Amino acid sequence: MPLFEAERPSGFFYQPAFMTTADEAALLAAIGHLTFADFAMRGVVARRRVAFFGEAYDRGIALPIPDFLMPLRTALGAWAQVDPAAFAMALINEYRPGTPIGWHRDAPQYDIVAGVSLLAPARMRFRPYVSPRDSASPAVRRAATHELVLDPRSAYLMTGSARSDYEHHVPPVTALRYSVTFRTLCSVAHR
């Protein structure tokens, strides 16, 4: 039996070569002018650095989504079959070599998660989500059931089961990588 049952969970869509190298270069040039901040969740500072735009995790408003992200938001909206304006939040993550993102499920106020990967590839792993209060023993290790490589300039959508029934993580990257993710609020209809 293979370690990973299927290429991806139900509700996860992947598009290699979603953007051109010229579009990636222009996006990276604009990202180069941003100020990134440390990201803390539940009092723990993550190793990745972030730039938030739109509606933040705490329902507060961050800076408005900048103009340089609008063409990408429009393209992702068309692919996800939602009004691009429904993407209420944009997050740019900077992953320096050795930076992971731990196991998590995106905040519950968000529905569709659409993202692109820039510069270096990264592995994204999934495992079934188990609520901490429903877990028989938090010390029991749960194994990943799905894994795929997010190539540079590729895009992904997490909807439905992939969004609600799984958690995901990215093991430490080996080279500088950026991800740009957009999120809709839960009231948005999609695919």
DSSP strand count: 11
| Sequence of strands across the biggest β-sheet | 1-9-6-11-4-3-2
Task: Note poorly predicted spans.
Answer: 1-6
Percent in strands = 35-45%
Largest sheet: number of strands, sense, barrel closure: 7 strands, antiparallel
Mean pLDDT: 85
- Outline type: globular
Q: Order of helices and strands, N to C?
A: EHEEHEEEEEEHEE
Summed up, the helix count is 3
Find the structural class using helix and strand composition: mainly beta
Give the radius of gyration: 16 Å
Task: State the end-to-end distance.
Answer: 32 Å
- Helix amount, in percent? 10-25%
Write the layout of secondary structure elements.
Blueprint: E1 12-15, H1 21-31, E2 37-41, E3 44-54, H2 70-80, E4 87-95, E5 101-104, E6 110-118, E7 122-128, E8 146-150, E9 155-158, H3 160-164, E10 166-170, E11 177-185
